[in-house]
Amino acid sequence: xxxxxxxAPGSGAQDDVRISAFADxxxxxxxxxxxxxxxxxxxxxxxxxxxALIAGRTRRLRxxxxxxxLGRNPFLLAKELAQLDRLCDGRLLLSFVPGLDHPGEREVxxxxxxxxxxxxxEVLGLVRRWWAGEAVGHRSVRWSFPAVxxxxxxxxDPLEVWLGGRGPKALERVGRIADGWLxxxxxxxxxxxxxxxxxxxAATAGREVDPEHFGLSIPYARATPDPALLRGLLARRPEIDxxxxxxxxxxxxxxxxxxxxxxxxxxxVVRPAAAVxxxxxxxxxxxxxxxDLQT
Length: 295
Hints:
Blueprint lengths: L3 E4 L8 H12 L5 E5 L9 H11 L4 E6 L6 H14 L4 E5 L8 H5 L6 H16 L3 E5 L4 E6 L12 E2 L4 H10 L3 E4 L3 H17 L9 E7 L6 H10 L13 H13 L4 E6 L6 H12 L5
Parallel strand pairs: 1-2, 1-10, 2-3, 3-4, 4-7, 8-9, 9-10
Antiparallel strand pairs: 5-6
């Protein structure tokens, strides 16, 4: 099983100077990739813009993004992602997420009253058909397209899309239609159960999810984390000590990752819980902490 690490900027790297420093430090390291997240109602850089910038500064790194497809025109999204995969010569990694459901988010994205999972599935089905070169005619309550063929196709064939989530419906969806799973805010034992649920769902659907396509996003703190972060995690998972999900210090981060490896996970996105002042320093610290686990 190939263990791979990507690094996300967390709360930092929101302008061209900081994201360039982030990309340069990771490109010079041994880490496998970088990862950006789409948070529509937060002042963070759109991941497609950020990865386009990083693509021009790097040659080695895999470029990953959590993308919220809700609120985006599926045809244009398929075009943008295909062109981004071409800009980075096939280094793009994707996870589609339904958003964080912040107050007002559904209204802003134009999906108020809609089932987010159903919208996500509809978009994923459409973009895959366009990436495959099909002429897609489609009509639903949300979108209407004549029989139109994509104007751009990705380098990767297929361009894989992973999904997240930890509830039964989300895990069933991963097994039924996704290429992999990127979880979050979950313990190693919960990850083991989630992986088994996904594999069973895939078997029921007559398909298989690659055993190496199970991953997790992990926030970490080098020192005591921000109390606001812990309160947020406690609100999401009141039954679990937040420090079980946010390791503090290199030994705790390493121990948590090893627990998830034992649970069958092999792809990890680690992100600092605090703003980073020097990415060279942060990457050096992370390298000493976990990089020897990468295979």
